[in-house]
């Protein structure tokens, strides 16, 4: 008998990654949860096993460490885990002027948002390809569609990720594997029980609930990949109507508001 297949979700200890893990488990998909916070991962794994009768494994792993991709894939091989879906979700942004932020924190962001995604995708793809239905979901951001002052490097990491993911998607077109380039705008914080916490915000209509973001991503995966989400598609289109050189100042003004 073949070993069971798993979806591997990075950054599963909280936020969007946790919502991904719950949604996949609800679809009876076994999950491997990756992040650094052991307690949070174990508590989530326990909850998913009890609620959905699936297999939920925990891999405590720092994705900014050396040779991330090859080491993580070796760990999976050692435990005979077969992966049919990779969700590259772990990521963070640092806000503030580039020259005033510590360079160590910023290079950590480059490592997590970009290098870890590239390495994991490279090292895991050969075994993903062995499955009849395999996929990769790369969690980028609408931040990658334009330069953003005071989040210059974060926006650049997401621009890199979007470009990489869309190129990969095209390369995979004739294969059995599909890639989704997920570009959410601002996401509502998740409440204790997984519900989206609403608040009074400017431009409130641009916020999405984490549940909607994940639902769109999984729907897009089932349809063969792409950029999901109506609001995100609309914001990409709207930017085409504005002269490119005017965009950084406009975005900076909106962010200050
Ligand atoms: N929130 C938004 O409004 C928004 C909007 C657009 C795009 N996004 C993107 O969506 C993704 C998830 O965002 P989020 O808001 O859900 O983030 P979050 O709540 O801050 O969660 C980040 C996750 O990444 C993990 N992580 C951080 N550093 C890590 C490391 N060195 N090694 C392994 N895991 C690490 C964290 O777990 P540990 O700390 O336990 O390691 C955590 O599980 C990110 O890629 C983000 O850029 C978010």
Tag the structure with descriptive keywords.
binds NADP nicotinamide-adenine-dinucleotide phosphate; Rossmann fold; alpha/beta; 257 residues
Structural write-up:
The chain has one domain (5-256): 3-Layer(aba) Sandwich (Rossmann fold). The protein is globular and about 60 Å long. The chain has a six-stranded parallel beta sheet with strand order 3-2-1-4-5-6, with helices on both faces. The chain is an alpha/beta fold. It is built from eight helices and six strands. The mean pLDDT is 90. It has helices at residues 15-26, 38-52, 68-78, 103-128, 152-171, 210-222, 230-240, 247-256; strands at 5-10, 30-35, 56-60, 82-88, 134-139, 177-182. 46% of the residues lie in helices and 14% in strands. α1 (15-26) runs parallel beside α2 (38-52), α1 (15-26) crosses α6 and α4 packs parallel to α5 (152-171). NADP nicotinamide-adenine-dinucleotide phosphate (NAP) binds next to α1.
């Amino acid at each position: 008998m073949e070993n069971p297949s798993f979806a591997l979700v990075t950054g599963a200890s909280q936020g969007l990654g946790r919502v991904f893990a719950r949604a996949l488990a609800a679809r009876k998909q076994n999950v491997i949860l990756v992040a650094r916070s052991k307690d949070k991962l174990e508590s989530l794994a326990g909850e998913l096993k009890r609620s959905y009768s699936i297999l939920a494994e925990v891999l405590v792993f720092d994705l900014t460490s050396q040779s991330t991709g090859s080491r993580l894939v070796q760990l999976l091989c050692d435990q005979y885990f077969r992966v049919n879906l990779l969700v590259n979700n772990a990521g963070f942004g640092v806000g503030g002027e580039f020259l005033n932020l510590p360079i160590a924190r910023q290079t950590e962001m480059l490592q997590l948002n970009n290098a870890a995604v590239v390495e994991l995708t490279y090292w895991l793809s050969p075994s993903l390809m062995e499955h009849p239905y395999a996929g990769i979901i790369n969690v980028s951001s609408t931040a990658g569609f334009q330069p953003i002052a005071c989040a210059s490097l974060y926006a650049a990491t997401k621009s890199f990720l979007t470009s990489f993911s869309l190129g990969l998607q095209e390369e995979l077109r004739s294969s059995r594997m599909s890639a989704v380039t997920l570009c959410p705008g601002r996401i509502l914080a998740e409440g204790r029980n997984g519900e989206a916490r609403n608040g009074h915000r400017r431009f409130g209509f641009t916020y999405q609930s984490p549940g909607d973001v994940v639902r769109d991503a999984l729907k897009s995966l089932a349809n063969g990949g792409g950029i999901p989400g109506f609001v995100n598609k609309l914001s990409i289109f709207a930017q085409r109507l504005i002269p490119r050189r005017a965009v950084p100042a406009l975005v900076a003004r909106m962010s200050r508001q």
